Amino acid sequence: MAISTLNRLSSQFNRLPSLSPFTKSLLTRSFAKVADRIVKLSAIDPDGQKREIVGLSGQTLLKALANNGLIDPASHRLEEIEACSAECEVNIAQEWLERLPLRSYDEEYVLKRNSRARVLNKHSRLSCQVVLTQDLQGMVVAVPEPKPWDIP
């Protein structure tokens, strides 16, 4: 849906007489780039409902989940591992684990220290440390329930 809308807008820009040819080509190219960066994912919310979410390659999984209302953006304002307390922990489906880079030492440390399960699960990742790529198109993630002490 988003790609067809971008393509439609792109064709409408070409019909505008007031835009210079350079501006038209610039707008058309930028729309194509956005469409090429779209990564569609499936997320299982804490209630067990499957939701389709959209992110952009180069963006963190945290940003995509927050933009789609699955993680409260205020609970994790910084995407720096030193400030992380694992509020952005997600579980990645088995078939997608090998497509992700290995967890860094810092990510493992934060997960062990602050994990909701208190045990390091191979499916657990910090969404602030997972950068979306086109290889992750269709990835399935589960967003666990918030910790009781995190609920206002």
From TrEMBL:
InterPro entries xrefs: 2Fe-2S_ferredoxin-like_sf (IPR036010), Adrenodoxin-like (IPR001055), Beta-grasp_dom_sf (IPR012675)
A Gene Ontology BP annotation from the UniProt entry: P450-containing electron transport chain
Record's keyword annotation contains Kinase: no
Keywords: 2Fe-2S, Iron, Iron-sulfur, Metal-binding
Gene3D superfamilies: 3.10.20.30
Cellular component annotations (GO), alphabetically ordered: mitochondrion
Keyword Metal-binding found: yes
GO molecular function: 2 iron, 2 sulfur cluster binding; electron transfer activity; metal ion binding
Protein name in UniProt: Ferredoxin
Organism per entry: Populus deltoides (Eastern poplar)
The organism's taxonomic lineage, starting at the top: Eukaryota, Viridiplantae, Streptophyta, Embryophyta, Tracheophyta
